[in-house]
Amino acid sequence: MNYKAFLIKYAEIGIKGKNRYVFEDALCDRIAEKLAKVADGFTVVREQGRLKVNCPDVYDYDEAIDQMKKVFGVWEICPAVVIEDASWDSLTKGVGDYVEERYGNTHHTFKVEARRSDKSYPITSPQICADMGEYILNRFSEFKVDVHKPEIVLYVEIRNFAYVYSESVKGLGGMPVGANGHAMLLLSGGIDSPVAGYMVSKRGVTIDAVYFHAPPYTSERAKQKVVDLAKLISVYTGPIKLHVVNFTDIQLAIIDKCPRDELTIIMRRYTMRIAEHFAYERKAQALITGESIGQVASQTPQSLIATNAVCTLPVYRPVIAFDKQDIVDIAEKINTYETSIQPYEDCCTIFVAKHPVTKPYLHIIERSEKKLTGVIEELVEKAINETEVIEVSENM
Ligand code: ATP
Ligand code: MG
Predict the structure, then answer these.
(1) What residue ranges define each of the domains in the chain, with the CATH number in brackets?
(2) Disulfide-capable partner of 116 in 120, 158, 198, 306 (CB 3.0 to 4.6 Å)?
(3) Going by CA atoms, what residue is nearest to atom 17 of ligand 1?
(4) Nearest-CA residue for atom 30 of ligand 1
């Protein structure tokens, strides 16, 4: 069938009261951006608790569905036939023609579900169900009603126009990107942080990212891997400004001045501080990390206290309570896994101590950090000033 329209059911944004327009507009925009890749001429409009996509005459159906399946906030995508004249004769004919084209007069069980958001429509929803059912039975001798387990549910919705559909494709859920502020993701080349960015963005948050590298100890290829990961998640999150910070001198200073077993924690505290600098610069309301309780020494509860202590913004840690396998499952679903497991070291794995502290005391860490006073300030400033910003998007 050549569908001229899709009805889009959205997830939670239906319940947002006065803010609903903000959410609906963001969702319309995100869907329109994706569909522009498929063909010219798609438009997306609000339609009383749903969105309606108007399609151009010629487009690739599978590609359109595929694009809409990457938009956060989309609950279901329903390819629909629009019946502009909703008078009873026109409505029954329209629904019947849809059934004929989609299913033919072959053996099927069905029921009708009607919904009337235009309450001035003269026929109530239960009556539409009953009368439409009767019309279908008369027109298609092979059809039978089954209200419990029908093969086909014919949805008839009376809105500004009438719509009929019987199929739906599941979307991602979540909220449209742009509806819930902005956050700065600490993106490494690992499995966890791209998943963390994806998960937060799924709640409607736009993201930028910061990556710390340590040339020549880390390679250009390791950096490219992070750019690749940013590009992969930008399919969902939208464009990302990736801040690439040269962290080498800071790391060397920490190695020089601080106890070896505290290296990772102190280093992580500096990554958080610098990430927060860029978060404020980009007007983000939060940081995001891929930390998970107990995964490594730097992620024990005590280590998290020490890392968290330098942050003034909230730190979103969406995978904090996830098992590794659960994170891997999402990484596979969003197509980052294969890239994440490429064997290029990032800076935090280069200078690891043999026996890192697993229970750092904050006051001891703070005391150790004092040894950096007079050296570190300038190094941090230089790292920030020389940071490279790469504009990453799925089209780059
Ligand atoms: P991931 O798989 O996300 O790299 P990980 O299991 O390797 O995480 P850590 O190295 O302890 O764990 O890092 C914890 C979190 O700190 C990461 O999820 C990421 O958010 C951030 N992080 C670690 N290394 C870097 C880096 N080089 N640049 C930016 N952020 C980093
Ligand atoms: Mg890592």
Answers:
(1) 5-170 (3.30.2130.30), 182-392 (3.40.50.620)
(2) 158
(3) 290
(4) 186
- Whole-angstrom CA distances from 198 to 94, 186, 212, 249, 393 are 41, 12, 19, 31, 14
* Distance (Å) from CA 338 to ligand 1 centroid: 17
Distance 60 CA to ligand 1 centre (A): 40
Retrieve residue 291's tokens: 């930390």
Q: Do 232 and 339 form a contact (C-beta atoms < 8 A)?
A: yes
Classify each residue of 137-170 as buried b or exposed e, where b means 16 or more C-beta atoms within 10 Å of its C-beta.
eebbeebeeeeeebebebbbbbbebbbbbbebee
User: Cα separations (Å) of 166 from 114, 148, 261?
Assistant: 12, 16, 62
Question: Residue 2: exposed, middle, or buried by beta-carbon count in 10 A (0-12, 13-18, 19+)?
Answer: exposed
Q: What percent of the chain has pLDDT over 70?
A: 97
Give the binding-site residues of ligand 1, using a 6 Å CB cut-off. Answer: 186-188, 190-193, 210-212, 271, 289-291, 295-296, 298-299, 346-348
Could you give the angle at which helices 220-237 and 192-201 cross, rounded to 10 degrees? 20
Report which ligand 1 atom has the smallest distance to the Cα of 186: 30
Ligand number nearest CA of 290 is 1
Asked whether the beta carbons of 266 and 368 are under 8 A apart, the reply is yes
pLDDT digits (tens, 9 = 90+) for 279-337: 999 999 999 999 999 888 788 899 999 999 999 999 999 999 999 999 999 999 999 99
Q: Identify the bridge partners of residue 45 per DSSP, sorted by sequence position.
A: 52
Closest ligand by atom to 307 CA: 1
For the chain, the distance separating the N- and C-terminal CA atoms, rounded to the nearest angstrom, is 34
Task: Give the distance, in angstroms, between the CA of residue 239 and the centroid of all CA atoms in the same chain.
Answer: 12
- Using an 8 Å Cβ cutoff, are 161 and 86 in contact? yes
Separation CA 44–CA 7 (nearest Å)? 10
CA dist., res. 325 & res. 297, Å (int): 19
Instruction: Please report how the helices 192-201 and 324-333 are oriented relative to each other, as an axis angle in degrees rounded to 10.
Output: 70
| CA-nearest residue, atom 7 of ligand 1 | 190
What tens digit of pLDDT does each residue of 242-288 get?
Answer: 999 999 999 999 999 999 999 999 999 999 999 999 999 999 999 99
